Amino acid sequence: MEKWLKTFKHMEETEVGMCSNNDHDRLAFYIKCRPNGVDLRSLVLQHHKVFIGYAPWRKGSVWDPHNVKASLLDISVENNDWNPEKLDEDKCFKVHQKQISENRGYARKIRRGDMVVLPRPGEGVCYIGRISDKFELVNDPPWAEEYLRLCKKHRLDCSNEADLIAEVVQSWPVEDWRPIAFPLIPRWISYSLLSRSTIGWLHDRPDKKLRVVEVLDQIYTKTFKANLEPTIDKTEVEGRLLLDHPFHF
User: How many domains does the chain have?
Assistant: First the structure.
């Protein structure tokens, strides 16, 4: 236990400690929403949500769908209110500890107005949305039965429904989604979307001349235009190669 707590504390300092700023600059992130290999796209689009998995089970708790916080810890709380000793070691120790710590960084930092991308490159599309409120644990999720049907369709073991439903109660609400053809996403953004990670931050263009939040916002509102003015500026040429398409919306 002591070794585990030291490891968790180190993760808190490196992953979450950076998220303690008071001022909130708009952020952008991607999230795959594929718990247990189940594609949640239909739930995400229908219910205007994005879900983050790896449920932080509370030690000694039983599943209570009417009061999820009695069963799961709230990963969005401040460091002073977070106690990893309350995690159920059997469910969270070896498999989940690193991801729970990383997820805390997202849950604490993502706020209303941030941009989110749900990538589906295999189908040639991305869905861009704008976060409409803070992270939440959802009681009595109305999508639970539909999710269980999806799990059964994927031939998952559904004998313990609580373990499955717990994967789709940690979430952020999202404004209207916009489907965008994957090739229309600038290369310096789409590169990250092809990562194997289930969630990650999206960063500004490497030359810092374009902010990822502003570009995604413009794509979202169909006002993005690529700069096609002639130039011999080496840095600008490199930046345009990163953009990699002569389109405008």
Answer: 1
If you write DSSP's letter for every residue of 44-62 in order, what string do you get? HHHHTEEE--S--BBTT--
β-pairing verdict for 178-181 and 28-31 = unpaired
> How many angstroms separate the CA atoms of 32 and 43, rounded?
13
Q: In which order are the strands placed within the sheet that holds 136-137? A: 49-51, 170-173, 136-137
Residues 6+ apart with CB under 8 A from 233: none
How do 125-130 and 178-181 pair as beta strands? antiparallel
Q: Which domain holds residue 75?
A: 2-204
Residue 75: strand, helix, or coil: coil
The per-residue pLDDT for range 71-105, each reduced to its tens digit, is 999 999 999 999 988 999 888 765 577 899 999 99
Instruction: Indicate the residue type of 236.
Output: E
Q: Give residues with Cβ within 8 angstroms of 227, minimum separation 6.
A: 236, 240
Q: Which two tokens stand for residue 108?
A: 């604490």
Q: Is residue 217 situated within a structural domain?
A: no
Per-residue pLDDT of 118-157, as tens digits, reads 999 999 999 999 999 999 999 999 999 999 999 999 999 9
Strands 136-137 and 125-130: unpaired
Per 3-state DSSP, the chain is made up of helix, strand and coil in percentages (nearest 5) of 40, 15, 40
Report yes or no on 240 lying in a domain: no
Name residue, tokens 């717990």.
166
Query: What predicted TM-score, i.e. pTM, was given to this entire model?
Result: 0.81
Residue 71 lies in a domain: yes
